[in-house]
Write a structure and sequence with these properties.
Radius of gyration: 21 Å
Strand order of the largest sheet: 2-1-3-4
CATH architecture: 3-Layer(aba) Sandwich
CATH superfamily: Creatininase
Number of domains: 1
Helix content: 40-55%
Largest sheet: 4 strands, parallel
Order of helices and strands: HEHEHHHEHEHHEEHH
Shape: globular
CATH topology: Rossmann fold
Number of strands: 6
Number of helices: 10
CATH class: Alpha Beta
């Protein structure tokens, strides 16, 4: 099978494929806790697989994924109930999470992670710990990677976010990239870019995904099984059906302490149907991935008409 992964190719291979189809795929994921049964790399491994398959079927080259630097609400998981379970599973000090609290200064719960005062030795080159600084870092990381792909000679680039919040960051990065290409005339015009979020296509094949955001559920677990066999471990799921699966859903749909939120009782059936204990399988995952690839092929064809 012809190699399509940029990091495993030599220059002659890159040039040949680029001449045949000047298109690069850039997966953008994260390292995120997905409960006891799914890998930390879930959100990049899925889009990495889809990008490689897309390159094989539709032309172009798949670049290595970006997965460090994702906005993790400052180094720890971003939902209160997730943090509580994550700390226990990972056996890390609670102080790590308390350094980036999910409580606002008035005691209310939120995602702003108010910056805490430094109480140690000053850093000559301090890293940005505020939420805004973290977002800016991630957008710039993506934008600089786009410029790197550009400088390898690619004129069409598809960004492929695999983590829910990342499509917005990818689109911001597209604009930052374009602004910075204009700084140097030697770079020539910017490449044409597009952000493709595969879960939007998946909602067509699995309507339950339209009811709420997904995380560590039957659909996502099945897709990872199909994309990266051997990385999902259903044996670590709780057998007691009264026990909620850690990392499945989260606020506002449920809390691990209180269970499903009564305000969403009209879609509790969807919560149950997507419980990872209800039919997570590679076969189901393969069907979902094939649907996404079929739709993606149509989108790529339209995109390349302008290239």
């Amino acid at each position: 099978m012809e190699e399509v992964r940029f990091d495993r190719m030599v220059p002659a291979q890159v040039v040949a494929r680029r001449k045949a189809c000047n298109l690069a795929y850039l997966p953008v994921g994260s390292l995120e806790w997905h409960g006891p049964h799914m890998p930390y790399g879930t959100d990049y491994m899925t889009v990495e697989h889809i990008s490689i398959e897309a390159a094989r079927r539709f032309g172009g080259i798949a670049f290595p994924p970006i997965f460090y630097g994702d906005v993790r609400y400052i180094l720890q998981e971003c939902r209160l109930e997730w943090r509580q379970s994550y700390i226990k599973e990972m056996e890390v000090p609670e102080a790590y999470a308390s350094a980036f609290p999910l409580q606002n200064n008035d005691g209310s719960y939120g995602y702003q992670c108010p910056t805490q005062p430094d109480d140690g030795t000053p850093a000559p080159e301090p890293l940005g710990f505020s939420l805004e600084e973290q977002k800016k870092f991630f957008v710039h990381l993506i934008a600089k990677t786009l410029l790197e792909v550009h400088l390898y000679g690619f004129r069409n680039i598809v960004l492929m976010p695999g983590h829910g919040p990342n499509p917005g960051f990818c689109r911001q990065a597209e604009e930052v990239y374009r602004q910075n290409v204009a700084r140097r005339t030697a770079f020539g015009p910017p490449a044409r870019t597009m952000t493709f979020f595969y879960i939007e296509c998946a909602k067509e094949s699995e309507p339950l995904l339209k009811n709420h955001w997904i995380h560590a559920d039957r659909w996502e677990g099945s897709v990872v099984m199909a994309c990266q066999p051997g990385t999902v471990h259903l044996e670590y799921l709780p057998n007691d059906r009264h026990t909620l699966v850690p990392a499945y859903l989260g606020h506002p749909y449920l809390t691990e302490k209180d269970g499903y939120n009564p305000e969403y009782k009209n879609i509790w059936y969807s919560f149950d149907a997507l419980d990872p204990r209800n039919g997570t399988s590679a076969e189901y995952g393969k069907a979902q991935v094939e649907y996404v690839l079929g739709r993606f092929g149509q989108i790529v064809a339209e995109f390349m008409k302008g290239g």
